[in-house]
Amino acid sequence: MGEQDHTDHDATVEANGPIRNRGADGPNFDVQVIVSGAATTVTVNPNQPVAVLIREALRKTGSVGQSADDFELRLPDGTIVDRDAKIGAAGIAAGVVLTLQPRVGVGG
Amino acid sequence: MTDGPPWRPARHAVGDVDVARTKLHREIEQWQASADGFRERGIILSAVADRWVELTFLMAGPTPTVGACVGIDYTNYDIEAPSVTFLDPLTRQPAAPTSLPVQLDGAVVRPLLRPHPVWQRQFLCLPGTFEYHTHPQHDGNPWLGHRRQNGEGRLDVLTNRIWDACIRDRTITVAPLVTFNVPELSGEIDADQAA
Fold it and tell me: Which residue, among A8, A10, A102, A12, has the nearest Cα to A57 in the 3D structure?
């Protein structure tokens, strides 16, 4: 048991907490999220659900006035990302610029 | 900044106009930071004037087509919500868009272009707009309950909402029909045939 792979432990993410960086050799990557006009960089793991990324972006920008469920995350092409999907499967790649904005209320 | 638009809603300043100007200037700067992404989706910031911007939304297809054009009036922002009006992209007068705004509510398609009983024009019936919050049926949902709630009223947020309502998940099909209108040529052919 001389050498132990610590990467799996380092990749653990608390359900409501910040994402821990796995290090340069891990699969984590940075994305830019624009929240209310303010850009912030979030380090994400592709195996985490998108909801974790949303919560982290809101936390880093101090946007705490509303529930994270009241926000929607968009890819650069305008697609709204499924918050329950895994980050890697949702088309979120390194360096992408995402937009986080409040859900629109019911109109009409 | 261009000259004033040929049409804009009649609104009276109720606060410091320089505050609204400064806030809109900041909105435009932040919008411009994402302008390349908006452009790829067919969204163009087509005019800027004093507390006023116009956005043109193109629909992709064989021939890019203007799906919607809006004028957004930021008078009194953000004491009051920005006013959104659909415009004819050529005359820049109020007009229904080519691609009518709707909102999907489950399987129900909810039309969002409604007549406004106070302002006497069609409006985009979505929270976060001046027209919505001044509609008598929405007097229980005032703008001050939305103001500064993580982006309400912001230019980029409105941009995405209008794009969602008018452009997203829509395609346009164009059948080209070319007609020639050359009476002189028609006359010569007729003359030859007559001879």
Answer: A102
Site of tokens 């009518």: B100
B155-173 b/e (C-beta count within 10 Å ≥ 16 → b): bbbbbbbbbbbbbbeeebe
Mutate to test the interface with A, among B146, B150, B156 (most CBs of A within 10 A): B150
Rounded to the nearest integer, the mean pLDDT of chain B is 90
Contacts of B26 in chain A (CB under 8 A): 37
Hey, how many other C-beta atoms are within 10 angstroms of the C-beta on A63?
20
Check: complex ipTM more than 0.85: no
Does B24 have pLDDT greater than 90?
A: yes
- Closest CA–CA distance from residue A68 to any residue of chain B (Å): 11
Other beta carbons within 10 angstroms of residue A68's beta carbon come to 20
| Distance of alpha carbon B167 from alpha carbon B14, whole angstroms | 34
CB within 8 A of B125, min separation 6: which ones? Answer: A107, A108, B112, B113, B114, B131, B132, B135
Confidence label for B61 from pLDDT (cuts 50, 70 and 90): confident
Per residue in A49-64, pLDDT (tens digit) is: 999 999 999 999 888 7
In angstroms, how far is CA B117 from the centroid of its own chain? 20
Query: Which single residue is written with the structure tokens 């809109």?
Result: B24
